[in-house]
Amino acid sequence: MDPSGLKKKLEKIDGRGYKAYRDLAGSYGFPGFTLFIDYIQGDPYASPSRMRVRVTRAAAGFEADLLDSQVRRVAFRDYLARVFAKAISSHVKGNRGTGKSGFIGVDYGGQEILERTAVKATDEFLEVRFVAGLPADGRRCLGVEAAAMLLEEVPQLVEASLFSAAVDEGGLRQHVDSAEDQDWLRRHLPEIGLTAFVADGSILPRESGVKDLPLVNRDVVAFRSPAELRVEMELPNRGLVTGMGIAEGVTLIVGGGYHGKSTLLAALERGVYSHLPGDGRDLLACRSDAVKIRAEDGRRVEKVDISPFISNLPFAIDTAAFCTENASGSTSQAANIIEAMEAGSRLLLIDEDTSATNFMIRDELMQQLIIKEKEPITPFIDQVRNLYREHGVSTIMVMGGSGDYFEVADTVIAMDSYEPAVVTGKAREIAAARRDRRKLEGGETFGPLTTRSPLAEGINPRRGGREKVAAKGLRTIMFGKQTVDLALVEQLVDRSQTRAIGDLVWYALRQDYFSGKASLAQVLDHMFEDLGEGGLEIISRHMPAGTHPGDYAMPRRFEVAAMLNRMRSFQVRQ
Fold this sequence. Notes:
It contains 14 helices and 29 strands. Helix 12 (495-510) crosses helix 14. It is α+β, with helices and mostly antiparallel strands. Among the domains are: 3-167, no CATH class; 453-573, no CATH class. The radius of gyration is 26 Å and the shape is globular. The mean pLDDT is 95. The longest helix is centred in the N-terminal third of the chain and has 22 residues, at 70-91.
């Protein structure tokens, strides 16, 4: 149907009850693009209607090399979503009545460049998926206002964002090339024995605790690598860059308070993602399997073998299959490490500020007062080298309060007014000169990981008479009757990732991946193999055939595992 047919429909339903908008569902051929109205909201207060606009690749006119690899396609699509969002702010009037009337929105994210469903790019077409609040007065259709949205504003959005002539070609190419360089860095780190790379000139401090933009003022110190750790990297687009390479093994980040220790670690934990050009972290990369580990008092733990760290608990509690509804700081941190390794992590990021002190260290004075036979915890200091030697798991940790770690560290980096220096030699001299030394407490070997297989009976999406899975902001997933708290899963960065995690678990349940026959790692493998073949769209259940949701962003396997492990009903077979 052409735009005139859509206009006639809108005139016909003007003033009628809101459900009359359902007559609009279908496709409409505009000059230069097609509008698809896929889903109509039930009332003006409900989630907005879902729509798509599509243009042919030939008409769009973008150069083919911008989409000639997966990483470049992801960045290209990310850029177009941001351009579409910017066009909304310029061309859309906004409020046109009751509830969400007049609203148009697209999922475009923050500082990270993520694979999203908001924009689709194939060899034949480009498509933007967006939402629109169809106008109403109370619960009556405002057909004339809807016509202004769909017949005037939407064509303006298409013209401003889906044709190369209207898009900043230099900005688009920089966006795509930068994402490709960051991906190249991340993928090549293991090949050269590095866990992370921070380019000279990077700006690591953020504007505030709630704003992820780079801090901009005259006191900001640009990062500069110490000479001992400086490496050169030849990037596909940027060419030669220099910066600090952090080698595999055990790395300490030390220094006084407020000198940049945690700022560096926070940048590294976000280095598993690519960032916008100019973000300050756009030439910083961390191994993609890095997981931030912290204490998490109160979380549930289901049959995790934490015996490498904790054993001989009172009342003969089994720590080889440890279960609790209310973990302590030390047991939760132990479980978080084992679970991260189980999901495939080979790099742990730890900040002493968010760790359980008794899990991290027992100094020689405490060892004298409380003998080992009375202490069930083998502290992390006594297992960190075993982790690397036996499992290839490296650790980068911020440590400002315990010099005992000097003896187990391969590299010690001191932050002084946000400037790093290598102090490994000095740290070793200090450790060697001490009189009283703490004793190694067990930990002669770490031992193998115990396999767990998740069971379907612990994953129930039903609530009342129907299935209910929904993300509530960034840190909460409603899954059936339960609320899954992800507040302390720190590498989850986008609510569209959270939404995808809930629906991905639901999808895996429908695929019978939780049969108890596959390990958790194998279940994650199945999930992400499916996503690689079919894209994020495959996890949506509610969209009509031939249409797709526009509000998913690709999560990592580690945050999916974190969601499962934090479900209060989760069950596994060891």
